[in-house]
Amino acid sequence: MSDKGRVFKAHFTIIDNVHHCHLQEHFTTARRETESLQHFILRLLGFCLFAYRHDLVLCESKTKPQLDIFASTLYDDYELVIEVFNDNIDELTKIRNQSRVLYVITTTPLDAELARWLALHSSVEVIVVQSEAVAELERVLSRSMHWDVCVDSDEIAITANDTFIRSPITIHWP
Q: Tens digit of pLDDT for each residue in 79-91?
């Protein structure tokens, strides 16, 4: 039985100026049992940044392996994985070995251990979002999320519940 306090209805209007597309995404999602709000928000932001790929899967708690966001090939290989950094370098290494492209999403300031790991793994990309923006999204989070999202090459802007939130992002676009 699911915990209703972790279930959310998402209604996202996403304008992606990088990939020149306008998307309407409507889905039900849930916070995992042990998932923090920050992790959940970063997972949703990662989905918004790559929503132009219609093959993305936003993983739920029952999915194994427990990845955050992924796209598979016809042969069930992980073509793209977007993973929220959760202080577990060993887990990132395992995911990196299973995927063709790995994006790690995190907040400012960049964790020192993650920075060292990224320096050793040049094939991994990092997405950095301002921690203040994530905290503001946590503050306005509601069970029915109506987000208007604008993705630019160096910034993401979200209007949620009459609150405008903007964050510079660091990302190397595919």
A: 889 999 989 999 9
